[in-house]
Amino acid sequence: MTSPTNDEPQVVGLLLAAGGGRRLGGRPKALLTHRGRPLVEHAVRMLREGGCTTVHVVLGAAADEVRARARLDGCVLVDNPEWTEGMGSSLRAGLASLSGTGAGAALVSLVDQPGIGAEAIGRVRAAYRSPASLAAASYDGKRGHPVLFGADHWQPVAASARGDRGARAYLAEHEPEIALVECGDVAEPYDIDTAADLGRLD
User: Fold this and answer.
1) Which of 23, 65, 101, 187 has its CA 20 to 30 A from that of 130?
2) How many angstroms separate the CA atoms of 132 and 113, rounded?
3) Where is the MobA-like NTP transferase domain (predicted)?
4) pTM for this entry
């Protein structure tokens, strides 16, 4: 893989935002309202404020509506027609979109975790050392998101990403290599999965 030029980012934000919100009555997570705007906008802003000048956004459920309603200027929008298969398909689509960009790493974030802000993202991003880097946020010692995958890991991660487990199997196999970055003091890793969780949005 070629090295990035001065104009190319070392670490690209990769936002997985394709979920259909099955447990939310079929409300696509990207379009949930947070602070008056679609949740996907908040997630993109956090990646940018955390230092990811380039952000790839994987869309699936209601992709056309997300494009119409959300302000995603400057993002690389990636369609995942297989989004119903689970997060693994979105991770594969997102990593494929990075091929040939010259980026050294992907910082993977989830659209339904608004409690993880720019400070946590910046901490994990700062763990990048080389395309062999592998790092993740930690919350009281428990691994969570965001996760940084150096480019050397993209192909094997994509090969192992299936169903809703995403990269869990790969990360479990490579546990000793993961640099854990404690973020529990600046972020909360909850998911917006059910109607009860909607109260966490404002």
Assistant:
1) 187
2) 26
3) 13-175
4) 0.94
